[in-house]
């Protein structure tokens, strides 16, 4: 029985070490398209218990737990129960840790809707009245983004103009208006009204 437990421990640990050395990310999704990540966060697909990493950990710790129980002189039933308990604990623990790491990874994803209200600089002239896209640049989450931009303004926004993102049109386009227009609106609202 000791040889069986040792073989399980060696197999599980070997797979974990090889996966770590290769740096292959195990997302646990069998429905991903060939060639890589689907682009959607894996977290949204639910808790994935049976991944290669978690199964390898389960087998490895089953072997370690069973070997430890055998070495301690436990009966065959207690040895198997100990191995299964430790193995299942390692399988679930590894799956939970993998899920947390993937959640941390997804926190770095850009959410373009968070750009609304950010200052930007026109990089390529933005034509007036939504007549076509220009380009703007701005910093977001410690990255510099360059996106297409449109404006509802009656005149074009020149290269170098300071603008503010007011909405997201699509994943590659934002709507912008000049900062000078926003400042003018604030100035007028701050002035005392003559009607008072």
Please provide a written account of the structure:
- The chain has 196 residues and is an alpha+beta fold.
- The protein has 2 domains: 87 residues, no CATH class; 79 residues, Nucleic acid-binding proteins (OB fold (Dihydrolipoamide Acetyltransferase, E2P), Beta Barrel).
- It is 43% helix and 18% strand.
- The protein has a 5-stranded mixed beta barrel.
- About 12% of the residues have low confidence.
What would the keywords be for this entry?
alpha+beta; five-stranded mixed beta barrel; 4 helices; 43% helix
Quick summary:
The protein has 196 residues and is α+β, with helices and mostly antiparallel strands. It folds into two domains: 2-26 and 45-106, no CATH class; 112-190, Nucleic acid-binding proteins (OB fold (Dihydrolipoamide Acetyltransferase, E2P)). It is built from four helices and five strands; from the N terminus they run H-H-H-E-E-E-E-E-H.
Itemize the secondary structure elements and their pairings.
Layout: H1 2-22, H2 52-71, H3 76-106, E1 119-124, E2 134-140, E3 143-150, E4 162-170, E5 173-178, H4 179-190
Parallel strand pairs: 3-5
Antiparallel strand pairs: 1-2, 1-4, 2-3, 4-5
In whole angstroms, the N-to-C terminal distance is 94 Å
Please estimate the helix content. 40-55%
Mean pLDDT, to the nearest integer, reads: 80
**SSE run:** HHHEEEEEH
Alpha carbon gyration radius: 29 Å
The largest β sheet comes out as:
5 strands, mixed, barrel
Beta-strand proportion: 15-25%
**How many domains in all?**
2
Strand segment tally: 5
Structural class: alpha+beta
**Low-pLDDT stretches:** 24-46
Total number of helices: 4
Global shape: rod-shaped
As laid out across the biggest beta sheet, the strand order is 1-2-3-5-4
